Amino acid sequence: MSRLDASGLFYTDLFSREKGLISLMLVSNPSAHHTLIDGMDRLVLAVCEEVADKRDLEHWMWGGTRILVRRVTKSRLENELDGGANTGLAQWLAYGDILLDRNGYLEKLRQSASRWPEAAKERRLLCEYSDFAKSYWLAKMSLNDGHFMDAYNHVLMSLQHWGNLVLIEEGMRPDSNVWEQVKRVNMGIYKLYEELTANEETLEQRVRLVMLACEFSLVTKMKTSCALLLRLLGSRPEGWSSAELAHHPELAGLPLDLELVLFKLVKRGYVREMTRSLRDHVSGLLEIRYAAERLN
Fold this sequence. Notes:
By secondary structure, this protein is α+β, with helices and mostly antiparallel strands. It is built from 15 helices and seven strands.
């Protein structure tokens, strides 16, 4: 069994029988990549043309080996990689053994993952900015309500999203050791992390200090992080409804808090709101549409 497992022959033989299989990858070194596979001994990533609802995630046992099986379509895999919903995915691609790869799909994806194509980079920046803004807003609400531990947890996440933004700007992919990455790239953010987690001041004082820095960063990074959305908003004079934006091919499927990001862009003056009458609805009811503001 161990020889078959180590060579990947067991997995190749088993999965090659599945209809619509495109590529197959095995991550099999838990001592080196234990954070990637959630306590399991093996990860099998199967890229398929279609995935049945109850077959996208399975846990198997084979001769004492615990196996995590993930089946994904190409579109879902690429969306997860671009959006950062799965922080271990880039590492799976980097360290996994490709067992089967029709038309070289996974190998091409692996190469593109290491290079950050500009379109993918823009999508990931927008998603991280959205998460950054949301966690900061939650921290602010918790702080106003006097819930200091909740505020601490939210502002810690804000710092991590801020760190992720900086890493992506540098062409790096954030992984499970994000603070070690941030320490090498931006000591200022890392120092804020240390101030928040290890300073001798009160919890409230630490949270307020870091929130001031986060608030400033949310303003300074807004335009560059939201470049994709701003370009879409500026692509036509009549503006966009929220539904049109949410279903646009460049945004659809991304883990994005679109309403919050639009609100911040409007408040900062990068985007303007437009209204038009909703026919066949209640008199006076208007639809809000969004367009990029022309700035000098």
